Amino acid sequence: MGKYALFAFSGEPMCFIHVLLNALDMNAKDLEVKIVLEGEATKLIPQFYEEDSPIYLLSQRVLSQGLIEGVCKACSQKFGTYEIAVNKGLKILDDMANHAGMAKFLKEGYQIITF
What we know:
By secondary structure, this protein is of the alpha/beta class. The chain is 37% helix and 20% strand. It has one domain (8-114): 3-Layer(aba) Sandwich (Hypothetical Protein Ychn, Chain: A), CATH 3.40.1260. The chain has helices spanning 13-28, 56-64, 73-78, 82-87, 103-107; strands at residues 3-8, 32-37, 68-72, 92-93, 111-114. Strands 4-3-2-1-5 form a five-stranded parallel beta sheet.
């Protein structure tokens, strides 16, 4: 089966819900899938842990299934969510000038999908 890296850039919760839904669906259908939070999507990290957030339930499912590969270091710092990402144990990705690079995923056979 295929391998997919879902790079989420949009900080709009309704767009991010589709990232979460697709990751869960793909995983359930035996596809290898990883989510990378980049750009404005990093500002959504606190909502993963806020029970009244519209992305809370899906985020918790994705986290429990280990589908989040990591968070961009530079962007999470810019949007003020780096500390919560570190404190919650999310992997920090910084292999491309402190951003999450795509080359590593491509070399590992992943197809990149951006949101």
